[in-house]
User: Fold this.
Amino acid sequence: MTKKQALWALRALALGLAVASWVFVTSKRADQTATAGTTIEPSVQYNTPGSSDLIVLKPVLRVRVRLRGPTNLISALNPAEVSVVVDLRDAVQGPIEVPLAPRNVVRPQGLEVLSIEPNLLSLVMDRVVSEFRPVTVRLAGEPAAGAIAGTPNAVPPRVLVRGPESILSSIDSLETRPVLLDGHAFDFEEQALVVSPSPLVHVLEPTVVTVKVPLTIPDAG
Assistant:
């Protein structure tokens, strides 16, 4: 290759690089000016004071949010970056309605909220209380040697539970996990876990009780 040819080759390379750079910058600017939309289903977070004795019954966990923004932001959007925050610090016990607006949507800067579905949440706030409830022993299986099970006792007979007032009012007692009679012919006792009847009700103490089961063997005569 002659010196003149090498010079033209360098000029062609420089021109090619300049064109590629122009195309890159132009496409980037186009991404920043063009807009696009997307719909996601972010989680709903409820903001209540730490000392609040109120709880949301059957909360709405997700809503549909329509977003619009620059193409590059929409294409790079991670759904985990978006959430809906509901302020319940001034809520009172009973049914409430909470409107949702763009200010409730936490999102990356530069994205616009077009719509929220539903845009009105119908919620029920309930007071959280702690109360004692009796424990009922649940038996399962068959005793050995024809023995007959009497009425079992739980020690202690009551446990402290905590949950929404409306749910606790419908709970008369809590059951233990099944206590198996299989293989037993005489009185016995064992530890059994107390089971909560609702995910919103928590057994505080004790969580385990001692179960005493009386067994009698019928007189063969």
DSSP finds three helices and 19 strands in the chain. The chain has a mean pLDDT of 87. Residues 1-33 form one domain. The longest helix spans residues 3-33.
